[in-house]
Design brief:
The complex is a heterodimer of chains A (about 600) and B (about 400). Chain A is built from four helices and 37 strands. Chain A is mainly beta and about 600 residues long. Chain A has an 18-stranded mixed sheet that branches. In chain A, strand 25 and strand 26 form a beta hairpin. The longest helix of chain A has about 35 residues. Chain A is rod-shaped, with a radius of gyration of 46 Å. The relative contact order of chain A is 0.07. The N terminus and C terminus of chain A are likely disordered. By secondary structure, chain B is mostly beta strands. Chain B contains two helices and 18 strands. Chain B has an 18-stranded antiparallel sheet that branches. The radius of gyration of chain B is 24 Å and the shape is globular. Chain B starts with a helix and ends with a strand. The chains are: A mainly beta (about 600), B mainly beta (about 400). At the A-B interface, helix 1, strand 1, strand 3, helix 3 and helix 4 of A face strand 1, strand 2, strand 4, strand 5 and strand 6 of B.
Chain lengths: ~600, ~400
């Protein structure tokens, strides 16, 4: 027990060490990775080697971060602000030192980020500001909660917080800019055009959905459900030499109102290139246009912050569609599994019920065992069918054992069929009540060739009625007819010996009778015969006929010896076995005969 | 049926493009080769391939038509009584699915299915490849989906029809010597999948299905001499298979995650497998058996796993424990059958790993599994019924999604 505890402790320590191994040493002016979902990587300035991003990682300026499909990141910046990166996004960390020029700057290369800047009053008074910029646009921030999306030269900024004055979106080279006030969205298109509109409930819902790992923002009352169209944004005249300065408080929640002109002068902030920003290929699909459909979370991808790339025309985003397609694929895989499990259950069922087995050739054989009594009332037909789907013997084989009695059988026909003629229960007033008129054993091969052994009981005068022997017992004369494919090959007749003990062959040309095992354990069939006029016996079945026990031996009464069993595969089944009769007279076809369990030796596995 | 689906697909394609719809394509696939081996077996080569091409047509309003064409190869190993069977399946099919927004957060959909499966089987006992057989499946269904920020619930109801080429044949067809009769089985399947993102790092998944399957069975032999009722019957048989899985994924860090899954499988059948007569049933597979009982099974699964990833590498190791009880007639070592409970315990380990190659969306993957199956039953020779098997495979995986 103690050693087991030690082992558990060692495992726990090992796991703990392994988990901590990803956490580098702490830094003072570094961005801290707080949460990672899905695929995310970073590379350092000037290097092309990507490393995985792990929670707890601290990153210096100049580092470029990327999230893959379904990935998302949550960062804490040195100034205390937090940033969420949606999937398929890339940023380069620029200046991370608020104490230097009071500026924190990031380059948005591609995708969508949300920046939550909760500047305190003293911070604001100190004038700390923030920039997020692209190659051709910049968003200057005093302190707010906003998202910025970059795509194909467009910069789309949405301001959610009702505090601070908002985000100024403009041209880094001193061109026109516009203010995205709280509750507003400003889209700077690649051609420099500035458009704005008010946010809607859809926008807030999408924010919560996309950045599930950042605090949600409660939408102000009175917002419309869906965003309206864009309007031309009010331009801010740049002040000479001025940086972005936050002056005074911005307007409050101004949903549905045009973008107000900010109190402060708008500068033309010079972006601080993060260097090493590998310009990732922009995601196709413009971000402007209609309202974005609420995306579906992609739990299977582990993406809690999957940001959709909006599709033109207000339809679902590409990512959303791709995610939906993947869901369909997953559904399909599950359904394939369900179908297979149902198949497996059916097969299992078949084997348990004996409705199927696997023959020695490796083919699955379907078995049906039927008893057809009282058709007509003096007949009982015991039928076993087997059916293969594949292989040279594909098709149905039928083995039928049909008893025709002299009179209608009782409901419990089993008290008669199979009973000896001289059984006491069958003797009424000293003579047999029930006796066979005919017994037919029929094999029908898949090739359509029927083999039939008919035993017709005849007595003096052609009657089937038994005659009493000298010793007092009753007996019947009979003639066996062997028929293959409709051709009668042999005929043999027997009559009780005059002594009353045994039978004497009275005619016919059959030599050997024994081959097929009846379900009730008896044997009926022919191996070889003497054709009319011939002097030597001809084989009826030339191939091996084996019934194998578990020791490789054969059951009594059959041809063959263990030494001749080489090359044959032992059939090993607990329920049912098979022997195969093969004959050229069957045109190469095969006939199955079933061997029932009581006839197997105890050693049969 | 297949022709109709093709025509419908072409019409939809033309109509969609006319309406300004756009294509989005997902292509996934993997090809693996490997080996599987069971106790005492010589081993079986594994050839696994799974290719899905899904060029979806997306309308501006949010409707999506996804033709979803697939080729799927799978392998499974299972025990059938004392026969160990290994099956490999190759399925070709298409499942066009149409989804459309219904209300905020809600979508509905409809789908069709046409599939042709080809199956190879080997038996662990005789270790020979069996012949190829194939079956077909057609169906369709409805979908209802609700997706919110942190939850998604997808429900589906499908009706499938499937033929079983070698399974039970109606008695009349067998007795007349014709082999053309096949078993038609059709079933309803109700599926439910629910994802709940409990927090940033935890995801709860509930996945379940239940089916009602109907088919005609010829293998119903009723031999009851005391009642004077003896004969074969054909009748409508029913069974109800189902499965429920609950899984929790918990991401500890970027590199590590754990997942724990619990599942239940149930199979209920209304079939009585055995003759109710004790007086004579010489032609039944179980002579002398005078018991009646249905085949029902219930299984509980537990599979905890540990996921690790670093840079381009990813690895998943999981343990598996399965407890299965099957209520059915059992032949004991003394040859006596009683309706009893067969208890199986399966346990094992499964490992999968992969590495991104950064080359044409390809990824190197590998799988290995080892499993031990034990039972409260005995083999005929008297030793406890137990065996183990393993399989290993390596290959390439492809994943592409249009942007």
């Amino acid at each position: 027990m103690k050693s087991r505890m030690n082992l558990l402790l060692a495992l726990a320590l090992g796991l703990s060490t392994a988990l901590r191994a990803d956490v580098p040493s702490e830094g003072q002016t570094q961005a801290l990775v707080m949460a990672v979902v899905g695929k995310a990587s970073f590379h350092e300035d000037g290097k092309n080697v990507d490393h995985p991003v792990v929670a707890g990682l601290r990153l210096d300026h100049g580092v470029t971060l990327k999230t893959g499909y379904g990935g998302s990141l949550k960062l804490k910046l040195p100034d205390g602000s937090t940033m969420g990166m949606a999937q398929n996004s890339s940023i380069t960390l620029g200046t991370l030192l608020p104490r230097e020029r009071h500026k924190t700057a990031l380059k948005l290369i591609q995708g969508l980020v949300r920046w939550v800047i909760n500047q305190t009053g003293s911070d604001a008074a100190r004038g700390g500001d923030y920039q997020i910029y692209t190659d051709n646009a910049v968003a200057a921030v005093k302190g707010t909660d906003f998202s910025a999306g970059s795509d194909g030269g467009n910069l789309d900024v949405k301001v959610y917080s009702s505090q601070h004055e908002g985000v100024q979106v403009g041209d880094p080279n001193g061109g026109g800019s516009a203010l995205a006030a709280p509750g507003q969205e400003v889209l700077r298109q690649s051609d420099g055009a500035l458009l704005s509109r008010s946010l809607s409930k859809d926008d807030y819902a999408q924010l919560a959905q996309t950045f599930a790992n950042l605090p949600p923002v409660k939408p102000p009352a009175g917002l419309p459900d869906h965003a309206g169209g864009f309007q031309k944004a009010a331009l801010i005249v740049p002040a000479a030499g001025g940086g972005h300065k936050g002056g005074g408080s911005g307007p409050g929640s101004s949903a549905g109102t045009p973008a107000p002109t900010p109190a402060g002068g708008a500068g033309s902030p010079v972006p601080t290139p993060g260097s090493g920003g590998s310009a990732a290929a922009p995601t196709p699909g413009p971000s402007g246009g209609g309202s974005e459909a609420a995306p579906t979370p992609s739990p299977d991808n582990g993406g809690s912050g999957a940001a959709p790339t909006p599709a033109p025309g207000g339809g679902p985003s590409t990512d959303q569609i791709v995610q939906d397609i993947k869901e369909q694929v997953q559904d399909l895989r599950q359904d394939l599994g369900v179908s297979k499990s149902l198949d497996a259950q059916t097969k299992s069922h078949d084997l348990y019920s004996g409705a199927a087995f696997i023959d020695r050739n490796g083919y699955r054989v379907q078995v049906a065992s039927l008893i057809l009594p009282n058709q007509p009332a003096n007949v009982v037909d015991k039928v076993i069918t087997s059916k293969r789907s594949d292989g040279p013997d594909a098709g149905v084989s039928v083995f039928s054992d049909k008893y025709t009695y002299n009179q209608a059988l009782p409901p419990d026909w089993t008290s008669v069929v199979g009973q000896p003629l001289n059984a006491p229960s069958n003797l009424v007033n000293g003579s047999p009540t029930y006796y066979l008129q005919q017994q037919d054993v029929t094999l029908l091969s898949p090739a359509g060739c029927a083999a039939c052994l008919s035993t017709v009981y005849t007595g003096p005068g052609g009657s089937a009625a038994p005659v009493q022997e000298l010793n007092g017992s009753w007996a019947q004369s009979f003639t066996k007819y062997y028929t293959i494919a409709g051709q009668q090959l042999a005929q043999n007749s027997w009559a009780p010996n005059a002594s009353g003990i045994g039978y004497t062959q009275t005619g016919g040309n059959l030599m050997n009778v024994a081959a097929a095992l009846r379900p009730d354990g008896g044997w009926s069939f022919a191996y070889s015969y003497l054709p009319t006029g011939a002097t030597s016996y001809q084989p009826l079945f030339t191939a091996n006929v084996w019934i194998l026990d578990g020791n490789g031996g054969t059951l009594p009464g059959l041809l063959g010896s263990p030494s001749s069993l080489s090359g044959l595969t032992l059939l090993d089944s607990s329920t049912v076995s098979e022997l195969e009769l093969s004959s050229p007279l069957f045109n190469g076809g095969h006939v199955d005969v079933l061997l029932e369990e009581p006839d197997l030796t105890a050693a049969f596995p | 049926m297949r022709r109709l689906l093709c025509i419908a697909g072409l019409i939809s394609l033309a109509a969609g493009l006319e309406a300004g719809a756009q294509w989005h394509t997902v292509a996934q696939g993997d090809v693996q080769v490997g080996r599987a081996q069971t106790t005492g077996d010589q081993g079986t080569p594994l050839y696994l391939y799974d290719l899905v091409l899904s060029p979806a047509l997306a309308w501006p309003g949010g409707a999506v038509l996804d033709p979803l064409i697939y080729v799927n190869s799978s392998a499974q190993q299972y025990s059938l009584e004392e026969q160990l069977l290994f099956q490999q399946t190759l399925a070709f099919g298409a499942r066009p699915t149409y989804t459309s927004p219904l209300a905020p957060d809600w979508k509905w959909g409809a789908r069709a299915l046409a599939q042709d499966s080809k199956n190879w089987e080997t038996s662990g006992e005789i270790r020979k490849m069996q012949g190829l057989y194939d079956d077909e499946e057609y169906g369709g269904g409805l979908l209802l989906q609700r997706d919110t920020a942190s939850q998604s619930t997808h429900a589906s109801l499908d009706l499938s029809w499937r033929d079983y080429p070698y399974y039970r044949s109606p008695a009349s067809a067998v007795l007349s010597g014709t082999a053309g009769a096949i078993l038609d089985a059709w079933w309803w399947k109700l599926g439910l999948k629910h994802h709940d993102r409990l927090s940033d790092d935890k995801l709860l998944t509930v996945n379940g299905w239940v089916a009602l399957r109907n088919y005609t069975d010829a293998h119903v032999v009723n031999v009851d001499s005391s009642a004077g009722s003896i004969g074969a019957q054909e009748g409508l048989q029913r069974d109800v298979p189902g499965s429920l899985d609950v899984a929790l994924d918990w991401r500890l860090s970027y590199a590590w995650a754990v997942d724990v899954g619990v599942g239940w499988d149930v199979f209920w059948s209304n079939q009585n497998l055995f003759d109710q007569s004790g007086s004579y049933n010489g032609v039944t597979p179980y002579p002398g058996v005078a018991i009646a009982g249905a085949y029902n099974s219930f299984a509980t699964r537990l599979d905890p796993g540990l996921l690790w990833q670093r840079e381009d590498w990813q690895a998943h190791l999981s343990g598996e424990l399965l407890l299965r009880g099957t209520s059915k007639p059992i032949r004991w070592s003394n040859g006596v059958y009683t309706h009893s409970l067969e208890s199986d315990t399966e346990y094992g380990l499964a490992f999968s790993g992969g590495r991104d190659l950064h080359w044409y969306h390809l990824r190197l993957v590998g799988n290995a599994a080892w499993r031990v199956v034990t039972s409260n039953q005995e083999f005929s020779q008297g030793q406890p019924a137990a065996y183990s098997y393993y399989n290993v495979s390596v290959g390439l995986e492809y994943q592409y999604a249009s942007q």
